[in-house]
Specification:
The protein is α/β, with parallel strands linked by helices.
């Protein structure tokens, strides 16, 4: 007897959720993220917090945390438990010096709660565990007279895997108001995250007040309005344009943010990016750019094209005086032991031409411009370390030259492996690989998601990430401080856009950062995640529900189309229809691949207990003479050209074949028999900002024997036609009369480099194709 994977997961999920906790198993009533190191239930008893509840503490540090916990009940409960020092109480804080930093133990019984820890962080995390076991209404800002504030009886011994458990938030590309930053910090605290990497400066805006240099916020915090264009499509500003878009934090506002985070055991690490990503600063103080720069320096509304190569001049001593003046105020403002100084994506275009930079290379006996950046970062680092008494952090491009003494490297490129070059030299590092932990990427089936960059980093991708790889040198593990989810905000225009991208994936980041290796259990995590999301609902936080959406895959299979439907959650039913009706809770359940041999409108959605959970997938499968036939001349993944499905406006949605950069695409379709042909076409997408355009030329040839081909049509396109602005799909077609053939060959030439007035001037463009149509 066989069992489908879908049915297996449903049974497994039912077992997990109906089993009482034994050792490290989960209780049906206690669902915590991140997962505790060890948790046991002690029966069905509960402890209830009431207006009569008393909390006992030993000192002022504990009292601060107890006051925080007590304050949670003021609005939703209409009361606040009282606090005493070393008195009789229902909830007792007790110091246990032998425990590790940030660890805690928690005993909840019918008559009281005992919390033990060695430090403030441990007591705070115990409180967060209690917060997650309380009804989610604890997060409400209005009175809930109908709620009993009960906590299940349990015993927990817990502590983190990594000391660095972080979120990076970019507020340069989209300025997030102070109140919204505070909301995110509180949601972080509930997940026991402890580092908030604040990306405050970039080409697109300077977000922190520096009193010595007021123009940084007077000029650098504001940019032209290009909000009606996607970030990559935005053209650079001209000098006469107004700059209404932006904002910044005053130092007083930043002190509020810092204090709020400190109360929640979160260290805010400021990032002042250099030497690149500095257009906002140089728009305010252009004298610190290389003197060979002749173009207008403005705050960039988008990628910036060639203007992104305007960076700080490394040959000008006044540049370093300027940056040291900024660091003086940043170091005084932020109590963090760290300052992050960027170091990423520095184009050396002007350094190669700048007489000051070249003189610096000669004077310091440097090999090249890459070593000049190494000199730049070492000089700034030395000031931070020796004068300001802080530690330095930077992105993994710093490994391209001599590393500053003691610097902590953030591995971000690809899978973050460049950070291992720093580890090999004994440097600590943090992993935030773009391929897994960049929260800007799509978090679910792209047909349902807001426009952003690149491919998918789904909730499950984040959850299954293991930072320490088997092929590492064993010494690297001891240097790994932890991990960080990184939220870049190019495609955000409201606070809701930001939280939608961050949550719920940040919960998976927290799980990886906190829980011990080998403890992952996807179905159990989802139950715990649901509990956390109930708290976000009560707080009014907008988050993505992409984990309920369906990812489709359609491939040719023996002259038919094989349709595979998947959902990240194993606890849902996928129900579908093929007759044009809406899928409902009683529609057929998908439990194996579908085989389709004709035009069909497939509609599907996920359901739990008859209620639809995800968005509806609408998938038209449209047949023509090329559909499900044989493809020659391209790799197997190119079979999507013959799968009857047209791609969306998101060119990374797995329905577009991308070919190779700057190389023609040529392929042949075997129709399996001689057919009359009147039309040959292929779908093509233009994504102007990403440099994706239609081909320079399309040629179609036919043959009966796959040896001798005859051209039946050609289409040539001009630069004006090719490099149109926007994001749109076209059908490139050639119509013929009285043609008959078994084999049809398409050849498409790449359009070449983007022209000088393009947002990506001089960069190679490429072709993306979806569906081949032969009629």
């Amino acid at each position: 007897m066989t069992m489908s994977k879908n049915v297996f997961y449903k049974i497994f999920f039912l077992i997990i959720t109906c089993t009482a906790v034994q050792g490290n198993l989960w209780s049906q009533n206690i669902n915590l993220v991140p997962r505790p190191l060890d948790m046991q239930t002690t029966g069905k008893e509960t402890f209830t917090i009431t207006p009569k509840t008393v909390i006992s503490v030993e000192n002022d540090e504990q009292k601060t945390i107890a006051e925080y916990f007590s304050s949670l009940f003021i609005l939703p409960g209409g009361f606040a438990p009282s606090i005493v020092v070393n008195g009789n109480a229902d909830i007792v804080f007790q110091t246990e010096q032998t425990m590790k930093p940030e660890s805690y133990s928690l005993q909840v019984k019918k008559n009281g709660i005992l919390i033990k820890a060695a430090d403030s962080s441990g007591f705070f995390y115990a409180v967060q565990t209690l917060r997650l076991t309380l009804p989610a209404q604890i997060e409400n800002r209005v009175a809930r007279q109908d709620t009993n504030w009960t906590i299940p009886a349990m015993e927990i011994s817990d502590g983190p895997r990594f000391s660095y458990r972080g979120l990076m938030l970019d507020v340069s590309r989209y300025f997030l108001p102070k109140e919204e930053v505070l909301k995110i910090i509180d949601c972080m605290a509930l997940l026991k995250l402890n580092k908030f990497h604040f990306h405050l400066t970039d080409d697109n805006g300077w977000r922190i007040e520096i009193k010595k240099y007021p123009r940084l916020t007077e000029v650098g915090a504001w940019r032209v309005n290009r909000e009606n264009f996607a970030f990559p499509d935005r053209r650079n500003p001209s000098p006469e344009e107004s700059t209404p878009i932006g904002g910044y934090y005053t130092q007083e506002q930043m002190k509020e943010i810092i204090a709020y985070a400190q109360q929640r055991q979160i260290e805010i690490i400021p990032e002042i990016d250099m030497p690149a990503h500095s257009n906002a600063a140089l728009a305010a103080y252009p004298e610190y750019a290389c003197p060979v720069v002749k173009k207008f320096i403005g705050v960039l509304p988008g990628l910036g094209g060639s203007n992104a190569d305007i960076i700080y001049c490394a040959g000008n001593d006044k540049t370093f005086e300027f940056l040291q003046g900024i660091i003086d105020e940043v170091a005084a403002l932020f109590p963090s032991q760290y300052i992050h100084i960027g170091g990423d994506e520095a184009w050396k275009t002007h350094w190669k031409e700048c007489p000051l930079c070249q003189a610096r290379i000669k004077k310091e006996q440097l090999q090249n411009e890459e070593d000049l950046q190494g000199y730049f970062m070492q000089r700034i680092s030395k000031y931070i370390q020796e004068v300001k008494g802080k530690k330095v952090m930077g992105w993994d491009e710093l490994t391209n030259s001599k590393l500053p003494e003691g610097v902590t490297i953030f591995g971000w490129q690809g899978f973050g492996n460049a950070a291992l070059k720093a580890a090999a030299q004994g440097h600590p590092f943090v992993m935030t690989p773009a391929r897994l932990l960049y929260l800007i990427r799509y978090q679910g089936p792209q047909w349902f998601e807001p426009l952003t960059y690149f491919g998918n980093n789904t909730l499950k991708d984040v959850y299954t990430y293991e930072p320490i790889q088997e092929n590492w040198d064993p010494s690297y593990a001891n240097l790994l401080m932890g991990i960080q989810g990184s939220m870049w905000t190019e495609f955000c225009s409201t606070p809701r856009d930001v939280t939608y991208q961050i949550f719920p994936r940040l919960a998976a980041v927290a799980e990886v950062a906190w829980s011990v290796r080998g403890s992952k259990d996807w179905p159990s995590f989802l139950k715990s995640l649901d509990n956390y999301l109930n708290h976000l609902d009560a707080k009014g936080i907008i988050y993505a529900k992409s984990m309920y959406n369906i990812q489709h895959k359609v491939v040719p299979a023996d002259n038919k189309l094989k349709v595979k439907l998947e959902c990240e959650r194993p606890d849902v039913e996928i129900r579908y229809t093929l007759d044009g009706t809406e899928p409902i809770g009683t529609s057929p359940i998908y439990n194996q691949d579908l085989l389709i041999s004709d035009n069909v409108l497939l509609q599907a959605a996920t359901f739990v207990n008859g209620k639809q959970k995800g968005k509806k997938l609408i998938l038209p499968l449209q047949w023509n003479k090329a559909t499900a036939k044989k493809l020659q001349g391209l790799p197997k993944e190119a079979e999507i050209l013959l799968n009857g499905v047209h791609g969306s406006l998101k060119q990374t949605d797995f329905e577009w074949y991308t070919g190779e950069m700057s190389k023609p695409i040529s392929f042949t379709i075997d129709l399996l028999k001689s057919e009359k042909i009147s039309k040959c076409a292929v779908g093509c997408i233009t994504n102007y900002g990403m440099g994706v355009h239609k081909p320079r030329k399309m040629k179609v040839e036919i043959s009966e024997d796959n040896q001798s081909f005859t051209t039946i049509g050609e289409r040539n396109y001009t630069d004006t036609e090719i490099f149109k602005e926007g994001n749109f799909i076209e059908e490139l077609k050639i119509e013929v009369q009285n043609a008959t053939a078994r084999y049809v060959r398409f050849t498409l030439e790449t359009p070449g480099n983007c022209p000088t007035d393009h947002v990506r001037p001089g960069q190679a463009s490429r072709i993306y194709l979806d569906e081949v149509i032969i009629k």
